[in-house]
Amino acid sequence: MSDTFRKPVRKAVFPVAGLGTRFLPATKAIPKELLPVVDRPLIQYAVDEAREAGIEEFVFVTGRGKTAIVEHFDTAYELEATMTGRGKSLEPLDPTRIQPGNLVTVRQQVPLGLGHAVWCARAVIGDEPFAIFLPDELMYGSPGCMKQMVEAYDEVGGNLVSVLEVPMEEVSSYGVIAPGAVNGALTEVKGLVEKPKVAEAPSNKIVSGRYILQPEVMGLLETQGKGAGGEIQLTDSMAKLIGQQPFHAVTFAGRRFDCGSKLGFVEATLAIALDRPDLGDEVRAMAKKMLG
Ligand code: UTP
Which PANTHER family does the entry link to (predicted)? Predict the structure, then answer.
């Protein structure tokens, strides 16, 4: 294949301008992305995953009431000075450190949909391929989901989405792929549809919150009309790239928690707490006792 669709992926977009209505009242004054799973906010899991995959520049698409997400990655001088004065380790703050200049925020003034949020980052993305992380989908595994995708990108280039299989009756809440040839964890993508009716869904493989896209998608988003749910859908513009550029899906070897829903959030909290070397045994004992 030519090198046209193979430039390295250095930039990532984190759309965090949604309203988080499914988590009200918790999300009235606190962004959904700062809700902690055990002791790290959701956004931290996504940034850690990005860093592991070699991402250097972090582009947050924010909106009103979302400034605290950006502050999470600031140097907290008073906090650090006080902790140091008290002889406390600053290590818990290490993941929050981003090289000065490498965190960029753009505003999405009105939450018109995910496609519109991504388009708001166009000036920062320029003519480079880029990753997208939806932080409320917590991808848990080692290597992380984006690292697995970058490894696949090194082989096939072009555009990639992460997918997983769900029971057919659940597909109507998601973007769904029409699969072509399968080669290990890689599936060729022949079509994409957002929130299809069960009877019309081309498969039960849903797109799960991680993308590597070529910059041409920005031009398509520019004129993208409203789609499912009256929102400007990223899926609709991605679908137009199929046939013009390579497009594959990667089945993530790991677990995905939908932390945008209450059940998924509780599941993530429990699964990660059980898996933590510093907490697992105690949490297991506590859970056993609770369940009788
Ligand atoms: P969701 O569909 O989960 O929407 O967005 P939401 O507003 O965050 O939450 P609910 O459904 O009201 O509870 C998926 C991702 O896209 C971002 C969200 O922040 C989330 O990361 N998003 C969505 C935007 O940044 N802007 C939008 O206009 C829509």
Answer: UTP--GLUCOSE-1-PHOSPHATE URIDYLYLTRANSFERASE (PTHR43197)
Half-sphere exposure (Cβ direction) of 5: Cα atoms closer than 13 Å: 20
Task: Please compute, for residue 171, the number of CA atoms within 13 A of its CA located in the half-sphere on the CB side.
Answer: 23
The enclosing domain of 20 has a CATH number of: 3.90.550.10
Is residue 215 within 8 Å of 145, Cβ to Cβ?
no
Query: Measured between alpha carbons, how far is 205 from 249 in angstroms, rounded to an integer?
Result: 9
**Per the omega criterion (within 30 degrees of 0), is the bond before 25 cis?**
yes
> Does some domain include residue 194?
no
Ligand 1: residue of 27, 33, 119, 136 to mutate (most ligand atoms within 8 A of CB) is: 136
CA 1 → CA 9, 108, 162, 181, 222, distances in Å? 17, 36, 22, 17, 28
Using the mean position of ligand 1's atoms as its centre, give its distance from the Cα of residue 112 in Å: 9
For 207-217, write each residue's pLDDT tens digit: 999 999 999 99
Strand partners, 211: 132, 161
What pLDDT digit, counting tens, does each position of 161-181 carry? Answer: 999 999 999 999 999 999 999
User: Residues enclosing ligand 1, CB less than 6 A?
Assistant: 15-22, 32, 61, 108, 111-114, 116-117, 134-136, 260
Token representation of residue 189: 């993508």
Structural domain including 223 reads 7-162+207-260
Q: How far away, in angstroms, is 32 Cα from ligand 1 center?
A: 9
Q: How many domains does the chain have?
A: 1
